[in-house]
Design brief:
This protein is an alpha+beta fold. The chain is built from nine helices and 15 strands. The strands form four sheets. Strands 13-12-11-14-15 form a five-stranded antiparallel β-sheet. A four-stranded parallel β-sheet has the order 2-1-5-6, with helices on both faces. Strand 1, helix 1 and strand 2 form a beta-alpha-beta unit. The protein is globular, with a radius of gyration of 20 Å.
Length: 291
Amino acid sequence: MKGTIITNPFDNSAVQQHKVKRMTEEFRRLNAYITVVSNDRFLTYVDQGEIVSSVDADFALYFDKDKYVARMLEARGIRTFNTARATEICDDKMLTHIALANCGINMPTTLSGALCYVKDGEIDGDYLRFVADRLSFPLVVKECHGSYGEQVYLVKDLNQLQSTVNAIKSKPYLFQKFIGESAGRDMRVIVIGGKVACGMLRQSAVDFRSNVQHGGQATAVRVPDDIAGLCEKAARIIGLDYCGVDVLLGGVPAICEVNSNAMFAAMERTTGVNVARLYAEHIVDCVKHGR
């Protein structure tokens, strides 16, 4: 069996390199031959009206968010993990909430931001006051595209809301109710093949975000049945082979984000669970059985 790991050419972070290394190791233990290719090598493109590809593999492990390449690979019959559709939904935080809406999944109240297409367009005061009245301060503003807890802003008053929106108004963004009981605290849950593999509690004493990259501390936990069911349902709805689900705690658990390319170095280190092996086994099984 042959596989290709496709990486983003601009992400040379240690956690990304670790992820590639671990997956390559586990695939080799399963006798799957792996090549690692950067996504700036024009692996597939449209030529004279036809999609062509230089990728010679039974599957592609897609460690990128480029929806065009993933869709073209699939058009050439290459099974991608995760699928292009699932990656697209998770890459856009607003699309994630829309996909999970009306499915009995608790989420914070979320408003999609009005995208500004006009240079020097002014933000209407009534627009911002509606957001403030609906969500109250403090509230969260997120760019719809972002990783590692970046592009997420805690806004405490109307002036800060206006300056934040002015700075990002030309990008897709959203407004979200701030769940104070879960400030600096959440649960990251890994789901593989539709089943919870492991989870960890993340807590930060220095930031409203709990991400390890922002100083959060991780502790292994047994994922409670209600949260496990919530995460597995979200993965199933979006169609994810692998994901990391961030669950806000305090009262009724609420899904905050679903990450199709969740890093797992901290998860393996904290829980002792071999996430890479579980994911590699799932991929090999899917390819063998044509799933």
